[in-house]
Write a structure and sequence with these properties.
Layout (H helix, E strand, L loop, with lengths): L1 H8 L3 H42 L6 H9 L15 E6 L5 E3 L11 H9 L5 E7 L5 E12 L5 E12 L1 H53 L15 H54 L5 H31 L9 E4 H15 L4 E6 L3 E4 L1 H18 L5 E7 L2 E5 L32 H11 L3 E6 L5 E6 L2 E2 L8
Parallel strand pairs: 7-9
Antiparallel strand pairs: 1-2, 1-5, 3-4, 4-5, 6-8, 8-13, 9-10, 10-12, 11-12
Helix pairs in contact: 2-5, 6-7, 7-10, 8-9, 9-10
Length: 481
């Protein structure tokens, strides 16, 4: 059985569906056919029994007495074509006395003898039996009493009346053959219809399979499966999910390629400058022509600056890659946002000692990755410090989970606001300043992972306001919403 089941599981889905449909139809047709046959059999036998009770002329009492007195086991009219009933009287010991109107003799059973001795008087008892030639007959037995010549009650006898079941069995056999043929055609037709339905129903699956195989073979993520907008069945949902998956993969690949291209472009500038400066220093050593001390100092300062810029760029790239990891949630914990902002403010004041940085911080606790959250806030403060004029002011405020950083710099043009969180995007006015264009991308990704929102907008009297909203609570509960 296990081997048969494994063999069935190895068949294609179409074949399995066709076999299951055919098996279900075969079971249903067989059940209906067998039930129909037994119902018809019962109705035919009921009709025969009614005919025996109503339509068969029973012998008169004198005929019964005559048959008992002159008991004969054969009938004088047995070969008469005008007779079609079996008529006989059976004694308690099983002796059979056939009447002249009978066409033959019915075999007596033990149950007949018991009925003659103990059965109810006048009640009809029906059974299937055979005649002396073995032909099937339907038998009706009625227990009667006899009287002696002196008028006294005599022994009980049984009046047996029977008819042949040849026509009935022929009808049942014809019905069985018809039901068998109809069932066979029904099962074959059901298998064919099941195969057609399976092919029609699995056609979208074939398209999906072809699309998946095409993607696996060519890595072409632009392929889409046509889906009816009004369809809500499982195949349509699966097709939409596949289209969404390929679109997401294509977008991810495009972003990855764009990140690689942008990173290569950004890395090329400091690496070219480093190589140029190092080649100058190397050539000076090889040729024995020393570089003037001032120029040498400037070259070394440039090398140091380019290495610092390169290290910052690599650090930003590493931060972005960690933001995409699936297990970033393992590093999330309850963080006091006001303490994180304080730490970031200390670093910002070191980078802008000539600026006035004010802070109004209220307690707020969030769930986030501590180091990533601090890096994001530092990036926001660095931008405020970078674009503030000398002697300017930076206002930092934390209230009800909303952190706002306002500078008084030149501000961001309205048409550039949609791009400020893109990777490697830098304003044309800021390209001369140090930076990689990844700072705000890191801010946006970190805040989104913490379940918050970040935005930039121009201030009314000049400058820019950066706003970060993070879900949390003003106290440090065991569990945050």
């Amino acid at each position: 059985m296990k081997g048969l089941f494994r063999r069935f599981r190895s068949l294609p889905i179409r074949a399995r569906l066709s076999l299951l449909v055919a098996a279900a139809v075969a079971f249903g047709v067989a059940t209906v056919s067998v039930t129909c046959w037994f119902i018809v059999q019962g109705k035919l036998y009921e009709q025969v029994d009614n005919d025996l009770k109503r339509g068969v002329r029973a012998p008169a009492p004198p005929q019964i007495v005559s048959a008992l007195n002159y008991c004969s086991e054969t009938s004088d009219n047995a070969s008469s074509p005008f007779r079609n009933n079996y008529l006989q009287v059976v004694k308690e010991d099983g002796t059979t006395c056939v009447l002249n109107d009978s066409i033959g003799k019915v075999k007596v059973t033990e149950s007949d003898k018991n009925t003659i001795k103990n059965g109810d008087l006048g009640k009809y008892y029906f059974r299937d039996g055979t005649d002396e030639d073995g032909a099937a007959v339907r038998v009706m037995l009625q227990r009667l009493t006899t009287t002696t010549a002196g008028g006294e009650a005599g022994p009980s006898v049984g009046l047996v009346i029977a008819v042949s079941l040849k026509s009935t069995q022929s009808t049942l056999n014809d019905l069985a053959l018809i039901l068998l043929l109809v069932s066979g055609f029904g099962v074959v037709g059901a298998g064919a219809v099941g195969l057609w339905v399976a092919r029609a129903g699995l056609r979208p699956v074939d398209k999906l399979t072809d699309a998946v195989e095409h993607v696996a073979r060519t890595e072409d993520l632009t392929i889409r499966i046509p889906v009816d907008d009004d369809s809500e069945d499982e195949i349509a949902r699966l097709s939409r999910s596949f289209n969404s998956m390929t679109a997401s993969l294509a977008s991810s690949r495009e972003l990855q390629q764009q990140l690689i291209a942008d990173a290569g472009h950004e890395l090329r500038t400091p690496l070219t400058s480093l190589r140029t400066n190092i080649e100058l220093l190397t050539r000076s050593e090889e040729t024995g022509r020393p570089i003037p001390p001032a120029d040498r100092k400037a070259l070394l300062a440039s090398v140091t600056a380019q290495m610092t810029e390169l290290a910052a760029l690599i650090g930003d790239l590493q931060t972005l890659s960690r933001s995409d990891e699936a297990h970033a949630g393992d590093r999330v914990e309850v963080v006091a946002l006001q303490d994180t902002v304080e730490a970031a403010l200390r670093r910002a004041r070191l980078r802008g000692p000539e600026l006035t940085i004010t802070a109004d911080l209220e307690p707020w606790f969030v769930r986030a990755e501590p180091s990533a959250l601090e890096r994001a806030i530092v990036n926001i403060l660095d931008n405020a410090v970078k674009f503030s004029p000398p002697g300017g002011t930076v206002d930092v405020r934390l209230h009800a989970g909303e952190l706002s950083v306002r500078d008084h710099g030149p501000g961001i043009p309205t048409d550039e606001l949609p791009h400020v969180f893109d990777r490697f995007w830098r304003s044309p006015d800021a390209r001369a300043l140090p930076g990689s264009g990844l700072g705000l991308s890191i801010v946006a990704r970190t805040v989104q992972q913490a379940g918050g929102e970040v935005s930039l907008r121009p201030a009314e009297d000049g400058g820019t306001i950066a706003t970060v909203r993070l879900p949390g609570a003003p106290a440090a509960p065991p569990e945050l919403p």
